[in-house]
Amino acid sequence: MRAGQAAGDPPKRRRGRPRRGAVEDGPGTRDRILTTARREFAERGYDQTSIRGIAKSAGVDPALVHHYFGTKEQVFEAALEVAFAPAMAIPELVVAGPAEGAGERMTRFFFGVWENRLSREPLLAVIRSAVSNDTAAAIFRRIVTRNLLHRVTPSLSQPDAEMRVELAVAQLVGTAMLRYIVRLEPMASAEPEDLIRRLAPIVEHHLTATPPPPFPSPAPPASPQEPAPPQQPAPPQQPGG
Question: Which stretches of sequence are listed as region Disordered (predicted)?
Answer without folding.
Answer: 1-30, 206-241
